[in-house]
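Example (one chain per record):
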Amino acid sequence: MEPVAALTECVNLGSHEKADMPTKLTPEIIIAAILGFEEQKRRIDTKIAELRAVLSGGSAEPASPLAAPNRKRRKMSVAARARIAEAQRKRWAAFKKTSQPSTPEAAPKPKRRLSTAGRRAIIAATKKHWALKRAEAAKATTKKTAKAPKKG
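Predicted structure:
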């Protein structure tokens, strides 16, 4: 398709009838068409960015900046990278030095053990407790049997 027909078709996208379009396209008309399409593209990019933000929950700014799409990445010299790496090593060394505790940790306390006398005291208390429980239970059963009416 030739450029004039393509531009005419693009301009007439919104209407079904053929608009009154001049047959000769001047540079001013072409520039105006380009500016109009670029504005449409910016609006579409903004809408796409808003939809992506809704989808991902992020910000509504366009993912790719329109200001400098063809800017090449700057290269860093080996010496500059070495200086940066050495500075970072120094920062880490200083951070690690300050974060270490000033006194070494004391050894954990030894596990406590139960003495023989303590164990005997616990055994005696447990026996006394259960003897009282058995005595109460026996007393309760004798009261039940005494209160029950005799059949006969």
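Caption: The two ends are 124 Å apart (CA to CA).
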